[in-house]
Amino acid sequence: MQILILGAGQVGSTVAESLVGENNDITVVDTDVEKLRLLQDRFDLRTLVGNASHPSVLEQAGIADVDMLLAVTQSDEVNMVACKLAASLYNTPTKIARIRAANYLEHPEIFSTDNFCVDFSICPEQILTDYINKLIEFPEALQVLEFASGKVSLVAVKAFEGGPLVGRELRYLRTHMPHVDTRVAAIFRQDRPIAPEASTVFKAGDEVFFIAATENIRTVLKEWRHMDKPAKRVMIVGGGNIGYRLARALERDYQVKLIEHNKKACERLSAELTHTLVLCGDGTDENLLASEHIADVDVFCSLTNDDENNIMSALLAKKEGHAKYFH
Questions:
Q1: Local structure of residue 169 (DSSP, 8 states)
Q2: pLDDT confidence bin for 321, thresholds 50/70/90
Q3: What is the C-alpha separation between 99 and 120, in angstroms, rounded?
Q4: Contacts of 306 (CB under 8 A, 6+ apart)
């Protein structure tokens, strides 16, 4: 398959790395020469320097023969224009655009064939926000992935000693919960996969992946472990796209504090978040965390653009309190 990737940032580079080994003919376009050089040094692909929304650049990149366009630059507008050009001028079969602004996503008609011709819109920031939100909602789970528009979920849970199903065979699940339709998809024991069979006995420490209706997740979780106390207090470090989205998603149901070091960003966040306490400061400041009662926080999320700061603030949160933390 011939694939054209617009944008050599983190998303574009990761996509290129995933697809390059599958007998695909890949071309990557970006304005940053250094990013393209690093990609070409690592992978067998073609690169082109230029503006991804210019027809002449798209033509040089071979858009006329492309099977799939992945527009994942940092600019939503560039991504949408590129998809529109690909559809109108070159009849590209599949067009995927990265969209960061929530305002665009709230109006899906923008992406229709009568407008920007985006076949699939993706928002990595929103996907990550939803993922963290689910883990906060179900603190007992290791992973929660939704399917069928949120009606069905795949959940990973670690079986604890004393759970109703620990020490019992898998076949017992159906007789023990006759009114809940659930299936065990996989079991990992000491980091090794075990094929789930009717005679498989669950052991403490097993990582069990089960599928169930989303409304039944909590009921099924109780079969492998004791339920944790529901989270009430959440602290977020970083007021960027992900931090802001997460605070907005949580603030009506949780007590949310958000720490952001940029003063102007704090003013904007304070105006846009109605039930979140916005604090201007450094998330790695131990005194600030202590003064904001980090020991009483249930969930701590460090979501800045700096990996080192995220790790440091998460370590401080672990040291000072008992919060579940993400970074």
A1: B
A2: low
A3: 10
A4: none
